[in-house]
């Protein structure tokens, strides 16, 4: 028992010694002229986070903030011993209100601070071939019959009866983005599987191009129905380009990664 207390005391002394040494090192580091400049300047380069917005059953994703890691930044600049913003090291800061903590809410659009929109394709065909050939980013709803490994598009599990089976396949192939597009009867299934729930903002059919164009906005999630025509998709792509929006994967649109990432 005596040896136990001796070892315990020794462990305590070592832990205190490490803690004390670390404190002394931090005090010395903070007095370094270069570190003082970093501490003075860091607020000029940090970006505050943006909270997600909850509107009843719906949620609009927030945006992570950026915080300067002063110690790592110091070591990056230490060789030249001069402050250089190019060598600042950042850490992301999660919003206080985030989609990851509210997965029961439905994402109907991305954050309007970003000039991004997304396409979701119901099926492969003339339109998907065109988008692939032009290297446009889009998502594709797949089931056990239509899924193909290594698709150009970002694929989303849209299976019902075989949901778990397709989910395992997507996990094995590292193609699972944990997003579920609601279709009227899969809410509980998606919720039980801890997915981000997405409901398209707009749906392009074979007869409503002007309506979609009129309601197009930053963050729009556009479902391309199987009745949609290629000519309307081309016109919509021109409108997106005219407005200086960027067509991105759905996983990027709903992500809360910060503006500078």
Topology:
Blueprint: H1 2-30, H2 33-41, E1 53-55, E2 58-60, E3 65-68, H3 70-77, E4 90-93, E5 106-107, E6 116-121, H4 126-133, E7 139-142, E8 154-157, H5 163-172, E9 179-181, H6 187-192, E10 196-198, E11 202-204, H7 209-215, E12 221-224, H8 230-242, E13 246-247, H9 250-253
Parallel strand pairs: 2-5, 5-10, 6-7, 6-12, 6-13, 7-8, 9-10, 11-12
Antiparallel strand pairs: 1-2, 3-4
Helix pairs in contact: 2-3
The CATH topology of the largest domain turns out to be TIM Barrel
Q: What percentage of amino acids are in beta strands?
A: 15-25%
Structural class label:
alpha/beta
Low-confidence sequence ranges = 3-22
CATH architecture of the largest domain: Alpha-Beta Barrel
* N→C terminal distance: 55 Å
The CATH top-level class label of the largest domain: Alpha Beta
- How many domains, in number, for the residues? 2
Radius of gyration: 25 Å
Number of strands: 13
Helical residues, percent: 25-40%
Overall geometric form: elongated
Compute the number of helices.
9
List SSEs in N-to-C order. Answer: HHEEEHEEEHEEHEHEEHEHEH
Give a verbal description of the structure:
The strands form three sheets. Strands 6, 7, 8, 11, 12 and 13 form a six-stranded parallel sheet that branches. Strands 1-2-5-10-9 form a five-stranded mixed sheet. It folds into two domains: about 1-100, no CATH class; about 105-255, Alpha-Beta Barrel (TIM Barrel). It has nine helices and 13 strands. It has about 260 residues and is of the alpha/beta class. The model is unreliable at about 5-20 (pLDDT under 50).
